Structure formats: C-alpha cells, structure tokens
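All the exercises in this workshop are built on plain-text protein records. An example says more than a description, so a record of this kind follows:
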Amino acid sequence: MTQDNGSSPHRVVIVGGGFAGLYCAKNLGGDGAIDVTLVDRRNFHLFQPLLYQVATGALSPGEIAQPLRGILRREPNVTVLLGQAVGIDPAGREVLMSDGGPIGYDSLVVATGSRHAYFGHNEWAPNAPGLKTIEDAIEIRRRILIAFEAAEREADPERRREWMTFVVVGGGPTGVELAGALGEIANDTLRNDFRAIHAPDARIILVEALDRVLPTYPENLSRSAVRQLQQLGASVRTGTRVTGVEEDGVLVDTSTGGKRIPTRTVLWAAGVQASSFGRAVATALELQTDRAGRIEVGPDLTVPGHPEIFVVGDLAIAKQPNGKPVPGVAPAAIQEGSYVARTIRRRVHGERPKQFRYRDKGDLATIGRLSGVADIRWLGPFGQFSGFLAWLMWLGIHIFYLIGFANRIIVTVRWGWSFLTKGRSTRLITEGELLPPIRTPEPPA
C-alpha cells in the first residue's frame, strides 16, 4: 500500500460523517498522495452529545450541527458526497450506493455509528421515540410540549395525570440527562406558563433494568446522580424492566411483579444497535457480530482478513490492553478516526503503522442546572466529583469539542441566558401532529 511517485493517489472512502469519520477526513486533509471521499446520508455533522438539549428546547438544531462541506472546504483532497451506502464489494473494492453508482477504494473506513434498539420489540418505537437524529430530537420536543398543552386543556383527572407523567427508559447518560432536563422544564421553565395545571406537579420516572443508573460510573456517583435527580422531582426506579409500551402506558416487571405506569409520553434511551450499512459490511465479509451488530476489530482497527477495511466508532468492538472494550463515546470515536488517518498516512508513505491506544479521558454527565457527575479516571482518587464542578466541566468540554466557532459562541450565549433566566428559548411545536387528542376539554377559567 506504499504510494510510488507518479502513481495515482491512494483512494480512501469514509462512510459516515460522525465524530470518527469527520476526524479521519480532517487528519487526511492536505496530503496530495491521498484522495479522500466522505459519504454520508446527511450533509452535516451532528454533535450528538448535545442532542438531548434540542429535544428539551434548550438549543436549536442548527446550533449543534455544521455542514460537512463547510468543515472540510479547506481540504482540496477531500470530496464530500451526499448519498447512501448500502453495501460493499470486497473483491472489487467498491462501496455500493443506493443510486447505483459504486465508489472504488484502496482503503475503506466504516464509521456509520449506531441507532437505538428496542430489544426485538420494534413495535414499541411509535410510542417510545429514541434520540439519535435531529428528527428524533424535534419529535421528542414536540411530545414533551404537547403533553403539557394537553394537560392544560384536559378536564378528565385520569387523562390529565397521564399527560403529566413522563417515563424515560434507560439509566445511562442519555436517560439521566433527559430526566434531569425534564425536571428543569417542569420546575423552572414552565412553572408560571399555565393556568389550569401546575407544571412542577409533573411526574418524571426514570426506569432502569439494572440495579443502578449510570452503571459504567463508580457506585458513589450513581448514588449522587439519583439524589440530584430526586432534587429535580424525578423518581428513579432501578431493577425495573420494560415489558411493553402502549399508547397510554408502560408495562414493567419488578422484583415484586408486573406493574403498569399510565403515561402518554415515553422517551427511549436504552440500548443501541449497529447501522444497516454496518450489518451489510459484516454480511459481505462473513464476519461475526455481537447481538447489537457490532464488529470486532484488531489492534489496528481493521477487520480480520481485510487490512484495507477499518471499522471505527460505535460500530466497532475495539479491545484495550486490559481486555475491556473501548467505550462508545465521542472522545473514543475522535481518537479512533484520528488514529486511522495516521495509519493510512504511514502505509501510503512506507512507514510502519502503530497499534491503537485508547486514552481514557473519563466520563461526564450533566443532570440539571448546576448538577452533574464526573469520573476523570486519570486524576485518580481526586477525579470523582459531582454537583457544580462536574456541571461546569461538562459545559467547558462540550463547548471545546463543538464544531464551528460561531456555534461555540451562540451556544455559550444561550447557556448563559438560560442560566440567568431559567428559560428555554426554542419551545416550539413545529412538526407532526400539532394538536393533542383531548377527551374532555376544559373551558378557560
């Protein structure tokens, strides 16, 4: 795979413009010996860690997304294509596209990420939207706001309680952050906006099948997260497994038996599965995958028998020296994408590639205004803390990694204004069904 003088550039195709794919493309930019093509179904890079803030009205979609062409416009050897990859021809070294025009490659980087999974119950999806795309976020925002509007109009007490009950399924970082944001919306943002209902009376229930929330964090931080959620009015139910999702309720199984939680708003933050393109790659290469469809890769992030194919990000199972898998978080994806770029450069220029080494920078989760938990493992015993300091660190790190200088400024100003006013400026119902189904309309007072 050495690039000879006068020969054609080494063709690199990157499928997916998330953290791993984008940072791979950026680090390959400017090398005349390499020709890069980045393919994505969307024309923008989405900063997924802040997606829940769009879902809860704190930010607008354009503030956490940046056009891929704009990000890479200064890299003359990088071409961005809007299209959908549907499979590969490993023998011919081509990526198969939905429009029929294959793209040839010398090195292929698969970085298509994951989507939410319902553990074999896809019929739950219409009543329990997940949070992976901007469309998901807008739909969740609509459902949250519609619920309060419906409760204001609904005179039937039982129906009103259903509208005022919010169930978040999954106690990982996304679920904890969603539940905390809902608590802020009910207790601060909408406190004085309604007349027939008292917004802080909303019931927010976080359901987790395991014995504690944030299971990848130390136990003391899991307990701290629960306390902070409770201060926001959220109820945490661990050891509770969802067995059914209906239009007006959630069925759960606990140690004391089955129960039903009446609710009209269920938000799904439990489980992920590989993208459809990732599964197509595994099938074409006859690779084994785990139950989520992820592909195990070697120390150089390539798949067995195909050193020209890299799999990175949420789609990959990459092992650390201690045998533990690299976590599916944004910093890991950034490191993997940057590593693959360096490896391809070394191969092309006749240098010996190095093995991937993941640098664990720790975990952060925000729970609400001035609340959060942090596990910064490289700080040792001083790296576990919660509350204001964790919240402040979370803000700083997310601003730092946000793509685009203008977006950083806008988000900083918005967060500052929200902090002072306790408001959320993008509380708009703009998509889908705009009026809730009311059983017994209540006349104005």
User: Anything to note?
Assistant: Residues 134-153 form the longest helix (20 residues).
